[in-house]
Design brief:
Elements lengths: L3 E2 L3 E2 L1 H15 L13 E8 L5 E7 L4 E6 L4 E6 L11 E2 L4 E7 L4 E6 L4 E6 L11 E2 L4 E7 L4 E6 L4 E6 L7 E5 L16 E7 L4 E6 L4 E6 L6 E6 L4 E7 L4 E6 L4 E6 L5 E7 L4 E7 L4 E6 L4 E6 L4 E7 L4 E7 L4 E6 L4 E7 L23 E5 L5 E3 L10 H6 L1 E2 L4 E7 L4 E4 L9 H4 L5 E5 L8 E5 L2
Antiparallel strand pairs: 1-2, 3-30, 4-5, 5-6, 6-7, 8-9, 9-10, 10-11, 12-13, 13-14, 14-15, 16-17, 17-18, 18-19, 20-21, 21-22, 22-23, 24-25, 25-26, 26-27, 28-29, 29-30, 31-37, 32-36, 33-37, 34-35, 34-36
């Protein structure tokens, strides 16, 4: 069927979108069992593919999960969908695999080798080949963050101490800088005892957030030359993990010894909450911007604390495996992956957004009274759209127009122009429509199926 919108623009594509939306709305979950609305539930606990899983990263587009296994000195790649099997054999990295990060622009995944002081680059999808020689970095590289805004990779060198920056897409992944450097701070790097740990990126401001565990600070530095920085922000005791939430523009720092999370405004860098209590010995932090939730892996309590980003309060504590460390969220699937270090597993948490209650059903509106001239029946031609704005008065209820078609099953769609865009409605898929919410005639076309005498009729006022 073809219909016409606003000067004969075909809209069969729009009708297809309505059908697709309805089918998606009617379909079940991709896997069972379903979680209660608003709750975070562990739906699977699967082997990590190696020993001592320490860090985890996700590739939302390819729906893959990358796990750095410290004990077995390798990288494993898991499917991001049930049954979450490994899609390839572990890839050797030659030392203590500590951190892992995925760069979507370069389609590469980077694994830090804290023993050999290098970063190993791999193709992020099958056949997962090594993309070049090891990338030389500083002493004991650990946590890694990729900046999709400028394709730069930032690595915290725990024993250097500094942040190594290299190009995440250029051949050979050339080294760019060691941070901090002037004008951010004098000298070649952080003060001794700083112990850089977690690194997070704000792609909007091109700033990098660096945890200095030894001095209980969060550093804010420019992600590109001239490498400026702001005064460090004091946080809790022995911070390790950090994450940025684009949904509320807040920064979350996991303080391992004080068992809490420091919440910081990313615009002013004011501390909004110096110590939001979570579980024992928090380590990793992940954000799901789709649901505006923050997930904190509590290594000492074998739990994950769930923070609601709209209130910055802990709304749930989820039991996971033994000694959770790294954690990552896939905003497309709303799944959270937790690396359980001591039992060599990955806990998969379904992150269910809170569903708002449906709007109240509007009170039915009485049909508009018939015009003085009465009504007439007009034969309709299938596959066409008939304008009704000239036959019904303004503010006529949409239900009145839909009810004027006989038999009802020939009605395929109504299209209304609200002055800016076209809005579609069809009785088969009312949940996918926003036309009925407007509820009143502005400019409407009625579209029917069939042909000839079986096409149906349309009752309209006599003009």
């Amino acid at each position: 069927m073809q219909v016409h919108l606003k000067r004969r623009i075909p809209v069969f594509v729009a009708l297809g979108v309505l059908v697709l939306l309805a089918l998606l709305a009617a379909g079940g979950r991709l896997f069972e069992p379903p979680a209660a609305e608003g709750a975070a539930t562990v739906i699977a606990t699967v082997p990590s593919g190696g020993n001592g899983p320490f860090d985890v990263a996700v590739n939302p587009g390819a729906n893959l999960v990358y796990v750095a296994n410290t004990g077995s000195q390798d990288l494993s790649v898991l499917s991001g969908a049930p049954p979450f099997n490994a899609v390839t054999l572990p890839l050797p990295v030659g030392g203590a695999a500590a951190g892992v990060a995925y760069n979507p622009n370069g389609n590469a995944v980077f694994v830090s080798d804290a023993t050999n002081n290098v970063i190993m680059p791999y193709l992020a999808v099958a056949p997962f080949m090594v993309l070049g020689p090891p990338i030389v970095t500083g002493n004991a590289p650990a946590y890694i963050a990729a900046n999709p805004a400028n394709n730069r990779i930032y690595v915290s060198n725990v024993l250097q101490p500094d942040i190594a920056v290299f190009d995440g897409t250029a051949p050979g992944f050339p080294f760019i800088a060691s941070l901090p450097q002037p004008p951010c701070a004098p000298g070649p790097g952080f003060a001794p005892g700083s112990v850089p740990r977690g690194v997070a990126i704000n792609p909007t401001t091109n700033q990098i957030y660096v945890i200095l565990s030894g001095v209980n600070q969060l550093w804010i530095m420019d992600g590109a030359a001239p490498w400026g920085c702001l005064p460090p922000v004091p946080v809790g005791a022995s911070p390790i993990g950090v994450a940025y939430n684009s949904s509320n523009n807040h920064i979350y720092v996991a303080n391992n010894v004080s068992n809490n999370v420091t919440v910081i405004d990313a615009s002013t860098f004011n501390v909004l909450n110096p110590g939001l209590p979570v579980g024992a010995n928090p380590v990793g932090v992940a954000v799901n911007p789709t649901t505006n939730r923050i997930y904190v892996a509590n290594a000492g309590g074998n739990t994950v604390s769930v923070i609601d980003g709209s209130t910055d309060t802990v709304v749930q504590t989820v039991p996971v495996g033994s000694t959770p460390q790294g954690i990552a969220a896939n905003p497309l699937s709303n799944l959270v992956f937790v690396a359980n270090y001591n039992d060599n597993t990955i806990s998969v948490i379904e992150d269910m957004p809170t569903v708002s209650p449906p709007p109240p059903t509007p009170t039915p509106t009485a049909p508009a009274p018939p015009p003085p001239g009465g009504m007439e029946q007009v034969a309709l031609q299938g596959g066409t759209c008939v304008p009704v704005a000239s036959t019904y008065p303004d503010a006529t209820p949409i239900a009145t127009i839909a009810g004027a078609v006989a038999p009802p099953n020939v009605l395929q769609g109504l299209w209304q122009f609200d002055g800016v865009t076209w809005l579609g409605y069809s009785p088969q898929f009312p949940a996918a429509s926003n036309l009925t919410q407007l509820d009143r005639l502005d400019v409407v076309f009625i579209c029917v199926s069939g042909s000839g005498p079986n096409a149906g009729t349309f009752s309209r006022p006599v003009i």
